[in-house]
Task: structure prediction
Amino acid sequence: MKSRSEKVAIIGSGIAGLSAAVRLAVSGKQVVVYEQNAYTGGKVTAFEREGFRFDMGPSLFTLPHLVDELFELAGKAPREYFNYHTHDEVCRYFWQDGTQLTLYPDVERNVEAIRTVFGDASAARVAEYFERARKKYELTAPFFLENSLHKPRTFLTPEVLKVVAEIPKLGLFSTLHQENQGFFKEPKLVQLFNRYATYNGSSPYQTPGIMQMITHLEHGLGTHFPKGGMHEISQSLTRLAEELGVQFELNTRVEELMVEKKRVRGVRVNGRPVLYDQVVCNSDIKHAYQHLLPKSVKRPKKTLAQEPSSSALIFYWGLSKQFETFDLHNIIFSEDYEREFDRIRTNGPFWEDPTVYIHVSNRLEKSDAPEGKDSWFVMVNVPYDQGQDWDKIINKTRTSVIERISKTLGCPIDTYIEVEEMLTPTAIEQRTSSIGGALYGTSSNERLAAFLRHSNKSSSVKGLYFCGGSAHPGGGVPLCLLSGKIAAEWLNEDTQHAKSH
Ligand SMILES: Cc1cc2nc3c(=O)[nH]c(=O)nc-3n(C[C@H](O)[C@H](O)[C@H](O)COP(=O)(O)OP(=O)(O)OC[C@H]3O[C@@H](n4cnc5c(N)ncnc54)[C@H](O)[C@@H]3O)c2cc1C
Result:
């Protein structure tokens, strides 16, 4: 007799939830995704206004093969569902004294660009820097990012021995800032490479030097941007999941994760219990323990005590003019980066000189803005929400940001803003349940942060799995795709194991 296929509920349709949904559907599970919003994708969403299209959340897209592999797994041709541009610039950097530098996904071009702007001495160790980043990435990514750190088996592989042998060279005992200072005398280059700490919402003055490997993602593996915008990542995966039979229950908040005798029983929605064999929780971990799980379930105290990552204020501006000085990704640096990060990490007083990130999606996606106009996503890092007076902070930040950009472009940009929307840490929390509006779950400001993230499987409730930015391996689109993968594979292994016993 054919056994019935297991029923799995997924709480949340963030990128990790979608990755898990596709994988579980491919392995024959009956999957229902509950999403409290009217749309799928969580932080990876978008909106349109008066002819401008804006991605609301992520703008940097790395490791596209992690999206492709979901289509391949389902036996589909990825390009029929999802496609992307490969771009020949990584980012344009601007400093307030007028210095400008463009970097590329090409080591030789970068050495040349840095030599031209900062001279021979500054360029001398650039190639070595990228090589070091590549080695760190290749050595650690398969181990730290693609496996659970909570399974003994992970530590019994030959890769681990290689990692252990190289520990002194990984930069676990220095900070990213110290690592970068060791390479570059030019403070602007130290600042530039320090910025990679923000890729997981951390401070370069706290996060370990191993994070140098993040530079390899763009500079070594390439800079990409999805056709149709970042939103297409979540939407193409939703279409794939639907084709595979996944059922999406939108506008449906899970009110409780039901547990009986240390085993998951299902979820409560609209006041009613719905029974499931397994549940994958894509909601923020703290939110899950505070609001979804019964109080009787043991709390992982150290994990829950982890500091949330930084958040952001985002201004979405439709401009009535195109500013060609800006490419797809642009950064205007603050003059005192260390103080800026200190204010973010400690929730210090308002910082009047923020580093400003400007993403102009219509450089590659022409239809994102009307002819002759620009669609700007302008972001400033801020602490996660701790009850700050955001209205006051927004006004002051808006003024500083406009001043900074206007000075860089030599033109008062506020007169060109014809469409304006905003996103704040409190709005991010309301939309996604991420505690404090943290962009990347927990920060990586501690050396052992990777080991303190929540496991992809509950150790106290059978049949319960976790994925998403606050679970292993952390935040950001590529890591969330991997998080869904680890959770789904673990669930599949457990059900296989149960069947064979
Ligand atoms: C402004 C911004 C900029 C960013 N920039 C980048 C970038 O450039 N590159 C990058 O890689 N990453 C970036 N990130 C981070 C990236 O977007 C996230 O790490 C990733 O998208 C998080 O995915 P997730 O799977 O954790 O789910 P989330 O996106 O957090 O979604 C969780 C989903 O679960 C739903 N949910 C929660 N609780 C319940 C419940 N009880 N019932 C029903 N549904 C529930 C929520 O509604 C939500 O849809 C950025 C994020 C933001 C906000």
Q: What stands out?
A: The chain has a mean pLDDT of 94. The radius of gyration is 22 Å.
